[in-house]
Each structure stands twice: as structure tokens, then as C-alpha cells.
């Protein structure tokens, strides 16, 4: 067995949306997971306001890094690398994280690893269930994304099998919660109400499940409209809206399609491991139905605990540590924040730089 001290000690910074996350891992061991969220500041707008998020990241960044180092009981000097979400996400929010990561990496003389937010959502499961099997099918469901991805190496090979053609699954949860006046974010509260409702009460449509529809793509916009119309009709008739039944029936329509398509993709590709990640993976019904359907199909299901499913810095550190372990080149100092970084690029490479090189560049940049 390898000595765990030989495994890379990496700090990860996540600022793609409204969570300022700083995590520290040693290999696949989680040491710290500090998160400062600005979600309350967005609640009254019913969605994330980019400028508000960027400002909150700026204020939270240094204290959150300090907290993570303290929680992990390590010194910044001992780090083997600093990883940061380079994209996709909100441009201004990403910039805060990327700038901070560069500043720390540069000042400490550590390699910088710009990584993909989506690949990080998959890689985080290593902290919970150990090394990812290769290949792994991943169902990634969050406020901004809903995709089925096949990965044979999370640092270099992520292949999109399908994705949403309109709304993301989490976005649908957020919108329906708004129509029901349940607040923001919608996922957790719908999940709660749905537990007391009947998932079979209302037959809402299952998007893109016809025989001619693309097998692995998703659509939630039609469902969203159908649910909103159903609620409006009730209200127009002066009837009370059965919130729990609507929540349960809507949620069932979403998770039915997600799990059905994910299991089908595994079967078609001969992959016997399914990983579910992203904020919506915190959904209790999605977890239960996925477990049931995977068991029936002989597929091993891996879902991290809810706190690791929503945005956090530990997932970025996990992918960064994997980059170090697999000798991937560090990113260059001109690493950009790329709001539409493709899912097929788990890591944003650049020139390899070592400590001496850092100083060379610094002289050039400072005096030229
Ligand atoms: O991954 P994440 O934290 O941020 C993005 O990258 O988008 O995901 C946030 C999304 C929100 O849309 C939120 O409503 C949804 O995840 N979510 C849930 C649950 N918890 C969070 N959706 C359904 N059920 C939940 N329990
Ligand atoms: Zn996310």
C-alpha cells in the first residue's frame, strides 16, 4: 500500500455560480470542505444574480481559504498544487476564483490546475467511494446542466452521450417552485413537499421518451409548461392547488426520465457503473429510483453524499489531485476563465511550469 503522505495534497477553489467553495484533499481523502454561499442574497430575485455572486465571492474568498487550511490542519506551503474551476459557469464569478488561484499559486510557487466544473462533479465521488471505475457513466444534473457523460479517464476523456435540449433539471425544479411560491432554490423544498404527496396523482409528460426521440437527450421545458398550466387551471377554477401532489408528480416525471435514460445508456454501452452528480443528485427520490433501477439492471450505483453533490471546493481539489497523480501538465499563468468551457475538456492545460520558471515569468511580466 502506498503511504498516504505520498499522495498529492491539493487545494481546490470553486466559484462558478453562487457558492464560494474551498476544499483540500490528499489523494482521494477529503481533509476540508469550506463553503460560503450567497444563495440568500439571490433568493428575493428568484435566481442567481451574476454581479451579486461575483461580489460575494470576492468577499468570501480569503476567509474561506483560511478556514479550509485551518480545518485541514495543513499549511499552504505543504500543498502540491492549487486547482480551480476554469469553467463553465458565470464569467465574472469564475474570474474571481481563477484570479485568486493564480495569486496563491504564484505567491507560493505551486503548480496551478484549471479544471472543468462538470468533470469535478464526477470526480468528487472518489472522496466518497474511492477510485472511479473506468469507464464510468455519469448522470450530471444541476441548475445549469443535465447530461449523460461517459468517461474512461476523468482527467482526459469525457464523452457526452446526451444532454438537455432546453432547461436543465435543476432549473425546472427552481421554476416550478417559483410557480408554487415555494422560494429559491426549488429543488430541496420540492423534494420535501413531494415526500408527503402522491407521485401518481397527476400524469405529467415525460419529455423525449417517444420511440423516435434521441435516446439520451433530455427536455424539461414541455414538462415545466404542463405543470404551470395545470396549476393555473386550478387557480382559475378557484380550487386549491394540491402542492404536495403537484411536487411529487412533477418530481416523478423528472427522475423517471433521468434514471430511465441513464440506465439505458449504461446497458447500451456495456458500462456497469453509474455515477450521479450535481445539485439535483441530492434529490431523495432520484437517489431511491436510481438505486432500484440500477439494482434491477445489475449496475453499481455511486452517488456522493448530498453536500458533495452541490457545488463545493472539494470536488475541484479531487480533480486537481487526480491531475497531479496522473502527471497532467499544470496550466499556464494566462489560464482563462471560460464561461462555456466544453465538457470534453476536463482540464485546461498549458505550459508546464516549475518554481524557477515562475520566477522567469515574474521578471518578464513585472519589468517588461
Ligand atoms: O450543482 P449545483 O449546486 O449548482 C449548479 O452547478 O447548478 O446545483 C444546484 C441545483 C439547483 O437548481 C437546485 O434547485 C438543485 O440543484 N437541487 C435539487 C435538490 N437540491 C439542490 N434539486 C432537486 N432535489 C434536491 N434535493
Ligand atoms: Zn455545479
TrEMBL record:
Feature: compositional bias, Basic and acidic residues: 351-368
Cofactor(s), names only, from the UniProt record: Fe(2+)
Domain of life according to the entry: Bacteria
Compartment(s) where it occurs, according to its Swiss-Prot or TrEMBL record: Cytoplasm
Family statement: Belongs to the KAE1 / TsaD family.
Single Gene Ontology MF annotation: tRNA N(6)-L-threonylcarbamoyladenine synthase activity
Protein's job: Required for the formation of a threonylcarbamoyl group on adenosine at position 37 (t(6)A37) in tRNAs that read codons beginning with adenine. Is involved in the transfer of the threonylcarbamoyl moiety of threonylcarbamoyl-AMP (TC-AMP) to the N6 group of A37, together with TsaE and TsaB. TsaD likely plays a direct catalytic role in this reaction.
The protein, known as: tRNA N6-adenosine threonylcarbamoyltransferase
Record GO biological process: tRNA threonylcarbamoyladenosine modification
Residues holding Fe cation: 117, 121, 311
One GO CC annotation: cytoplasm
Reaction catalysed by this enzyme: L-threonylcarbamoyladenylate + adenosine(37) in tRNA = N(6)-L-threonylcarbamoyladenosine(37) in tRNA + AMP + H(+)
Origin species: Streptomyces coeruleorubidus
EC number, as in UniProt: 2.3.1.234
Residue stretches making up the Gcp-like domain: 30-317
Broad class of where this protein is predominantly found: cytoplasm
Annotated positions binding substrate: 140-144, 174, 187, 191, 283
SUPFAM superfamilies recorded: Actin-like ATPase domain
Pfam families referenced in this protein's UniProt entry, alphabetically: TsaD
Gene3D superfamilies, alphabetized: 3.30.420.40
Region of interest (Disordered), residue spans: 332-368
Cofactor, how bound (note): Binds 1 Fe(2+) ion per subunit.
Keywords on record: Acyltransferase, Cytoplasm, Iron, Metal-binding, Transferase, tRNA processing
Amino acid at each position: 500500500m502506498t503511504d498516504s503522505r505520498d499522495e498529492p495534497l491539493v487545494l481546490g477553489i470553486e466559484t462558478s455560480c453562487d457558492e464560494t467553495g474551498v476544499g483540500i484533499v490528499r489523494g482521494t481523502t477529503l481533509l476540508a470542505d469550506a463553503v460560503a454561499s450567497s444563495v440568500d442574497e439571490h433568493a428575493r430575485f428568484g435566481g442567481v444574480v451574476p454581479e451579486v455572486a461575483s461580489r460575494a465571492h470576492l468577499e468570501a474568498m480569503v476567509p474561506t481559504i483560511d478556514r479550509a487550511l485551518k480545518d485541514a490542519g495543513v499549511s499552504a506551503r505543504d500543498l502540491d498544487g492549487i486547482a480551480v474551476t476554469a469553467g463553465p459557469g458565470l464569467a465574472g464569478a469564475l474570474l474571481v476564483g481563477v484570479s485568486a488561484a493564480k495569486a496563491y499559486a504564484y505567491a507560493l510557487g505551486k503548480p496551478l490546475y484549471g479544471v472543468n466544473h462538470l468533470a469535478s462533479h464526477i470526480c468528487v465521488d472518489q472522496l466518497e467511494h474511492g477510485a472511479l471505475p473506468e469507464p464510468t457513466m455519469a448522470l450530471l444534473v444541476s441548475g445549469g446542466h443535465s447530461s449523460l457523460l461517459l468517461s474512461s479517464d476523468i482527467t482526459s476523456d469525457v464523452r457526452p452521450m446526451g444532454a438537455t435540449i432546453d432547461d436543465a433539471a435543476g432549473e425546472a425544479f427552481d421554476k416550478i417552485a417559483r410557480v408554487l411560491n415555494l422560494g429559491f432554490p426549488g429543488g430541496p423544498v420540492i423534494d420535501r413537499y413531494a415526500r408527503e404527496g402522491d407521485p401518481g396523482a397527476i400524469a405529467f409528460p415525460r419529455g423525449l421518451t417517444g420511440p423516435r426521440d434521441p435516446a439520451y437527450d433530455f427536455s424539461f421545458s414541455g414538462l415545466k409548461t404542463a405543470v404551470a398550466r395545470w396549476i393555473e387551471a386550478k387557480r382559475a377554477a378557484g380550487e386549491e392547488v394540491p402542492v404536495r401532489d403537484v411536487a411529487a408528480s412533477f418530481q416523478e416525471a423528472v427522475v423517471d426520465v433521468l434514471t430511465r435514460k441513464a440506465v439505458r445508456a449504461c446497458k447500451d454501452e456495456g458500462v456497469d457503473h453509474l455515477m450521479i452528480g450535481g445539485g439535483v443528485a441530492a434529490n431523495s427520490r432520484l437517489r431511491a429510483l436510481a438505486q432500484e433501477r440500477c439494482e434491477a439492471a445489475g449496475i453499481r450505483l455511486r452517488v456522493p453524499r448530498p453536500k458533495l453533490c452541490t457545488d463545493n471546493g472539494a470536488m475541484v481539489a479531487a480533480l486537481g489531485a487526480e491531475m497531479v497523480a496522473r502527471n497532467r501538465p499544470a496550466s499556464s499563468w494566462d489560464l482563462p476563465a471560460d464561461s462555456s468551457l466544453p465538457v470534453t475538456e476536463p482540464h485546461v492545460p498549458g505550459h508546464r511550469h516549475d518554481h524557477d520558471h515562475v520566477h522567469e515569468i515574474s521578471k518578464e511580466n513585472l519589468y517588461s
